[in-house]
User: What shape does this take?
Amino acid sequence: MKKANNQALVIFGASGDLTYRKLIPAVFDLYMNNLLPEGYVVLGVSRTKYTDKEFRKKMSEGIRQFSNFKDTAYEKINDFVAKIFYLSIDTENGDDYALVKEKLSKLNDKFNLQHNYIFYLSTPPSLYPLIPKFLYGQGLTIQEKGFRRIIIEKPFGHDLQSAIELNKLLLEFFSEDQIYRIDHYLGKETVQNLMVTRFANGIYEPLWNRNYVEHVEITAAESLGVEDRGGYYDNAGALRDMIQNHLLQVVSLVAMEPPIKNTPEDIRYEKMKVFRALHPLSEDDLKNNVIRGQYTASNIRGKHYVGYREEPGVNSESRTETYVAMKFYIDNWRWAGVPFYVRTGKRMPTRVSEVVIHFRPSPLPLYKHEDGENKGFNQLILRIQPDEGILLKTGMKVPGSSDKVKSVNMDFHYSELTDHYIPEAYERLILDCMQGDNTLFMQGEAVEETWRFVQPILDYWEKHPEAALYGYPAGSWGPDVADDLIEGADNTWRYPCKNLADDGIYCEL
Ligand code: BG6
Assistant: This one.
């Protein structure tokens, strides 16, 4: 892989959790994979006071816990953190950004950074409008001698209007090709593999449309609750936290047309067409085809789990959803009439993300399912995590019977490719930005389009606070009513287990 040019990564919000758990371990992984350029430094910027030494110590601990190379010798980690620096400023005060400029200029001269800087915004969103403006005020966004790029963490906006405003504001100080809006799902190897599976193989694509696909199901379930993020989450909810971004991105990769070339522009163009084709939700859809839930207290394997409303930072009367299941359509030639079902939830029985393509049953029902149901046998499951892989379900003769068919699995697991290193999402995305490749980042217009699609749901819930919010016990698969969303008497959601091929059995709770 080609190495990037010399450069600095400037992380705003460096004292926060993301830097510690994800960003620095990801940069360390790049270092271990020999993908960092000769001249490379990280400058952490935050309000908290740290010396370089203290910050390096904290980052070393993060690496020890979260890097893919966590067992590396101390010397190696020390060599790496020696190129991490820290600057404490009042991030809300524009004048303090002169200190950032001065520090970068010194680092630039010392490490020959060639004036190339990436600014990473890992701060509370209230700072998103300020930091670009202050950087601009110091001339730090102008690409005269080197490149200047900005990575922005989610949430990108709180609703459609704020996303539009944020885009507008960013474009006053940076051009679109300098802006990298991150969605870490797109950095996942298996999410990228959705496109490869579809377009590198000749056998799937002819079937990948309304003629052969009955419906598409996408799940992102988490066993964790809101942990220590109650304050943030209670203002966000599952729709904003997962559906508007991660899951609609996955939908676009499942539904898009083949790009004419494998270039960022062509891929983004095709994804954008999917967002534009999302069928606007009607009043009836908002009432009946979007289901929200909130987890309640329960005992799982002898351990007590509190309900969402008892979580720290959460309002005790909160009506924020920790679960959403919805049904919608895509209005284009390929998908007209095919329902897409998407669901996500916290405190589900297991952590699993997957896409299930349900193919139509054979046109003539000559055979019956061994359990008497008359449903299709073919599903293609694209497992995003864990036990990443692909599973194809096929009907086979039940040995000894004349007309009974059972469903069997053909499965491939990524772990079988043991000789390949699989980068973490952040590692991949930071490297892409270093190399100036924005394929896996979100375009401003696309983000607005996804907000445009979910905004009516937010409006509906605001206008109808009495709209049902179903409680579901922690450790369950969410409200039962979500099963009724799925068309077809015998159809339900797939209830996946931790292991891709274990299904149709009672999974661990
Ligand atoms: C984040 C959400 O963007 O994605 C979290 O804010 C969620 O609430 C996380 O837990 C899920 O990511 P992953 O990679 O664990 O599936």
